[in-house]
């Protein structure tokens, strides 16, 4: 059973806030969530002198808190225990990471607008710095989730994401599909037959699936699909498969933080996050990786 002791919802005072709060309510209705923290940081470094001169000593945090309280009252009726946290710090990513540690947050919900409305820079920074799993909810996404896709590369991180996905679908009565995107060593063509190489590659991958199913019997009956990357990136192939299969949730395992910030998220999750997909994206860390 999936239980989330503490969950953080990042709000930015835009139109997507109402959707995030409503989606949070559906999560609380379907999963065991202990407490939800609705958070917003007033970035003091971005407040202009004109603003200060016009509004003087206005209690901006209180105004923001009241605004969030109104949204929560309207869209979170029937939700679980919750609290609103508003801060005034120069660095939003740092304060959010501190909140995750302070309140032992297990999952952060992050909204994402389409690329023609936002660069997504803050979201990318948060993904790289938050020491917890992150559920990204695009503004065009639906609350209804019936079919889940979990790509794996047979790493411990992807297997962890797969087992979480299986628990989720069993708990909520959903459908699950596993996807593996593989590449062929094209530098050896035409020394070997491309058709033969593809056949051999699929045989090897199927053997790895058999071994995985022996070690984790709970996923033995889950259907899986093998897709060759060919002239596309792995992320592009995943997105193409998403669109074909009409999935409602994408779950990806994250391997851990690299000391170099630009490498900490991984190329596949980064590319998918920066693409305008219209379903939620659950980026999963295992407890061992977070520790």
Automatic annotation (TrEMBL):
Gene3D superfamilies in the record = 3.40.50.12370
InterPro entries membership = UspA
Give start and end of each UspA domain.
146-271
Q: Which domain of life is it from?
A: Bacteria
Regions that span the bilayer: none
Q: Which family is it part of? A: Belongs to the universal stress protein A family.
Protein name, UniProt field = Nucleotide-binding universal stress protein, UspA family
Its lineage reads: Bacteria, Pseudomonadati, Bacteroidota, Cytophagia, Cytophagales
């Amino acid at each position: 059973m999936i239980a989330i002791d503490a969950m953080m919802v990042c709000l930015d005072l835009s139109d997507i806030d109402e959707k995030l709060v409503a989606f949070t309510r559906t999560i609380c209705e379907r999963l065991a969530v202990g407490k939800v923290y609705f958070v917003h940081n007033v970035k003091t470094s971005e407040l202009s002198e004109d603003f200060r001169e016009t509004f003087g000593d206005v209690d901006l945090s209180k105004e923001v808190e009241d605004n969030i309280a109104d949204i929560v009252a309207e869209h979170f009726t029937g939700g679980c225990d919750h609290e609103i946290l508003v801060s005034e710090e120069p660095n939003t990513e740092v304060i959010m990471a501190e909140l995750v540690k302070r309140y032992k947050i297990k999952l952060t919900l992050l909204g994402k607008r389409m690329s023609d409305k936002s660069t997504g820079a803050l979201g990318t920074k948060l993904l790289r710095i938050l020491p917890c799993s992150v559920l990204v909810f695009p503004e065009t996404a639906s609350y209804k989730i019936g079919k889940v896709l979990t790509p794996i590369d047979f790493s411990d991180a992807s297997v962890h994401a797969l087992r979480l996905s299986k628990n989720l679908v069993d708990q909520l009565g959903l459908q699950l599909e596993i996807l593996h995107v593989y590449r062929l060593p094209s530098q050896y063509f035409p020394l070997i037959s491309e058709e033969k190489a593809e056949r051999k590659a699929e045989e090897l991958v199927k053997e790895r699936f058999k071994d995985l199913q022996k070690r984790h019997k709970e996923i033995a009956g889950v259907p899986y699909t093998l897709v060759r990357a060919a002239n596309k990136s792995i992320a592009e192939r995943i997105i193409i498969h998403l669109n074909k299969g009409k999935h409602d949730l994408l779950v990806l395992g994250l391997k851990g933080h690299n000391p170099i910030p630009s490498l900490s998220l991984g190329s596949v999750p980064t590319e998918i996050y920066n693409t305008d997909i219209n379903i939620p994206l659950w980026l999963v860390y295992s407890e061992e990786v977070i520790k």
